[in-house]
Design goal:
The chain contains five helices and seven strands. About 30% of the residues lie in helices and about 30% in strands. Helix 1 packs parallel to helix 3 (about 80-95). It has one domain: 2-C-methyl-D-erythritol 2,4-cyclodiphosphate synthase (60s Ribosomal Protein L30, Chain: A), CATH 3.30.1330.50. The longest helix has 14 residues, at about 80-95.
């Protein structure tokens, strides 16, 4: 068996946060106008947290809570783009780069469509790919369950990493 790293690695991320009064709503590194934000130790950007889990999982490095615990005061109110940047440093250190990323946000409100282009720009810059390599979709829960009752949001992400020295 070869010691060479796999050509491709896949990671899956999932996160959920409940809504809270008096918080700003950050999604994909973009401030979204809404009457409530998401509750969390950091800025609670549910989409970026799912992306971090996908990146970290793809390289076998656990999850966001292991690297940026909510018990650490350094991460209090931290912009989640910082978590993505740090996760990407780990991805690069293992010899990989993002090939593409696909995400879905589950929320009744606010409408996500008007902000997708800005989120794609923010995320593509943070992970070092073209905007065309970042997919972001949104759907509702058709008023079912906690998300349908507008108690919070969920995000899922899947990432494909490719070994940088793939030509060898």
């Amino acid at each position: 068996m070869s010691d060479q790293k796999p050509l491709f690695r896949v990671g899956l991320g999932f996160d959920t946060h409940q809504f809270a009064e008096g918080r700003k709503l950050m999604l994909g590194g973009v401030l979204i106008p809404h009457d409530r934000g998401l509750l969390g130790h950091s800025d609670a950007d549910v989409l970026l947290h799912a992306i971090c889990d996908a990146l970290l999982g793809a390289i076998g490095e656990g999850d966001i809570g292991q690297h940026f615990p909510n018990t650490d005061p350094r991460w209090k109110d931290c912009p989640s783009l910082k978590f993505v940047e740090e996760s990407m440093k780990m991805v690069s250190a293992q010899g990989y780069a993002v090939s593409n990323l696909d995400c879905v946000i589950l929320a009744e409100k606010p409408k996500i469509g008007p902000y997708v282009a800005s989120m794609r720009a923010s995320i593509s810059a943070a992970i070092g790919v073209s905007e065309g390599a970042v997919g972001i979709k949104a759907t509702t829960m058709e008023t079912m369950g906690a998300i349908g009752r507008e108690e919070g949001m969920v995000a899922q992400a899947v990432v494909l990493l490719e070994r940088r020295d793939a030509s060898r």
